[in-house]
Amino acid sequence: MVTKRHTTILNGFGTQESDLFSMLSELLCHNGGIIKVPEGVKYTQDDTIAVISYAATSTANSVEAAVKELKRKMPDAAIPSADTVFNYIYENKIEDILAFFRAINSEFLALTGIPDEPVDVAVDFHDKGYYGDKNDQGVRGIKPKNGTSWGYSYLTIDMLSEQKLTEVDFIMAAKNNKRIKRMLEVHKRKNGVTPVIFKYQFKDTSSPEFYLVAIPNPDYDPEDTKNKNEFRLFATSIIFGSVDEFVKRVPKEYKRRWNIETGYRVKNEFKIRTCSKEGVARVLFFAIQCIMHNFLNVQKSILSITAYELKSLISQDIQKFFVEGKSLNSLPLRVFYTKIATYNEHRITELCSKLAES
Q1: What's the half-sphere exposure (Cβ side, CA atoms, 13 Å) at 248?
Q2: What residues contact 276, with CB distance under 8 A and at least 6 apart?
Q3: Which of 252, 270, 313, 333 has a Cα-to-Cα distance from 294 of 20 to 30 A?
Q4: pTM of the model as a whole
Q5: 3-state per-residue secondary structure call for 49-116
Q6: In which band, very low, low, confident or very high, does the pLDDT at 2 lie, cut at 50, 70 and 90?
Q7: Are strands 231-236 and 121-129 parallel, antiparallel or unpaired?
Q8: Those residues with Cβ within 8 angstroms of residue 113's Cβ, 6 or more apart along the chain or in another chain
């Protein structure tokens, strides 16, 4: 993979300069953009996106702090105030932002490719606490954290591997209850603390049956509140050839879902903090956070780059944008991706050829 500073694009026998912010801006502004600015205003859509992107990629992780830092570094540059940025944002609709988010994700998928058949995915909810009126649009009850039990919830999906399963198969952690505890006690009296599989159904008889897998917890300690469960419980719809195979595979399968937890940590690298109570601003910032995460994954598929490096390069490019009034070159991500992917393929072929000759 290309590991040099990748704003230099290989183009035949020559090179072409392009900055990462121009690619990101092109994504966020095409087809009307993730947000629209009112007509006749002083600052452009690019200016607004630049401030928001700087908040997502610099140490100044709020719009207010981003504006303050940019003005300190470039006192003569024309930079919109935080109030101006928010006023532009408030003119937009949540539905339009989400529609744009879905469209841009389709573009990411088209670049990196996704099998035209079922794949393993991890699905989870991500809660973001809210301290305004619980009756505001989109606010729901969440698990209490940091002084609030109200917030916004986002459903995220991460693809885990290339292994194919049917779309209805699932593996998920299960919670213990009195009924399950009684079943486990009966099992322990007969067989000791050994793995076991039960067919299980909720009390509502209209609910489907599934398999409940109980595996002895090697870290069990009745005195430790974090490891007080004698069994690890999983619910799954998958049928295996034998009990041994089932019990052996379930923990391994389930561990792969922690990719989504890693994804959360990376998404939070691009987190934009705000005290705004307006749903449109909060949805926008989370959508951009996820777009940045997906933008990073596309880059990582062709380049050796970390979240920190990507953020640093975008922040530098945004500062150049405000100084020079324009990006170095507005090269679309799909063009950049094709050029680097082609270069990588050519380089691998050339290296294999040289190894074969030696």
Answers
A1: 6
A2: 86, 282
A3: 252
A4: 0.62
A5: HHHHHHHHHCCCCEHHHHHHHHHHHCCCCCCCCHHHHHHHHHCCCHHHHHHHHHHHHHHHHHHHCCCC
A6: very low
A7: unpaired
A8: none
